[in-house]
Amino acid sequence: MRRLPTAAALCAVVLLLAGCAGAAGERAGADARGQDPAHAAGPLVRPARLPPVVDRVRTRDPVVFLTYDDGAERDPGFAGLVSERRLPVTLFLTDRVAGPGYGHLARLRAVGASLQNHTLDHPALRGLPHAGQRAEICGQQHKLRSRFGIRPHLFRPPYGTYDRTTLRAAADCGITAVVLWRASLSADGELTYPHGEPRLRPGDIISVPSAETESLTPAERTVRLLGEIEGRGLRVGRLEDYLRHEITGRRAAGN
Ligand SMILES: [Zn+2]
């Protein structure tokens, strides 16, 4: 005798295809509690939504975003500057680089810096197998969670290099956006633009990588950069907040 499929089995099938009402409710509930949906639901329940890759935020507000990779926190003047100017900076952290400096990071977090994921060991991820990419991203999620009690939602791939496997791995680890940059600050404090219009525009994400040549400290480079930002009538926004807003909007619009 042929058995009718149960509601649960039907839902599981529908989930695989397009999600279902129960799952949508569960996702909304998990988000409202501030948990990451991929982990809250368990790894086998449904494929995670791929995070968007962004180098700027769609906004009309006169804001740009300051992001730092790999070691700015070791500059003692940097935390002072962030605190004094109340700068909502975002730091992308690699455990191998930041691990010894987690004390500085706690201080930076206390004065308003956002701590986000930049892998455990800083490999170029593109082309690596899924398990390896996932270990790099989820591993750093776990480190940041155990050190600071936070669940980062943003991820910057080392060297800005990634592939579709990176996006799947990032989604598995609870990442909601992969963050690149539209402008980058050179070691001598000049802004460079990998593509697009070579001037700062509202919504631009600026990367301040650690400089090989230490002619200027991260704090000094930031002060110079702030002069340029303010000279263009812009200010520094909090990337996390603007991206959350944009991602919610994209989901509501179905893209
Ligand atoms: Zn890096």
TrEMBL record:
<dbReference type="InterPro" id="IPR011330">
    <property type="entry name" value="Glyco_hydro/deAcase_b/a-brl"/>
</dbReference>
<dbReference type="InterPro" id="IPR050248">
    <property type="entry name" value="Polysacc_deacetylase_ArnD"/>
</dbReference>
<feature type="signal peptide">
    <location>
        <begin position="1"/>
        <end position="23"/>
    </location>
</feature>
<keyword id="KW-0732">Signal</keyword>
<dbReference type="InterPro" id="IPR002509">
    <property type="entry name" value="NODB_dom"/>
</dbReference>
<protein>
    <submittedName>
        <fullName>Polysaccharide deacetylase family protein</fullName>
    </submittedName>
</protein>
<feature type="domain" description="NodB homology">
    <location>
        <begin position="62"/>
        <end position="255"/>
    </location>
</feature>
<dbReference type="Pfam" id="PF01522">
    <property type="entry name" value="Polysacc_deac_1"/>
</dbReference>
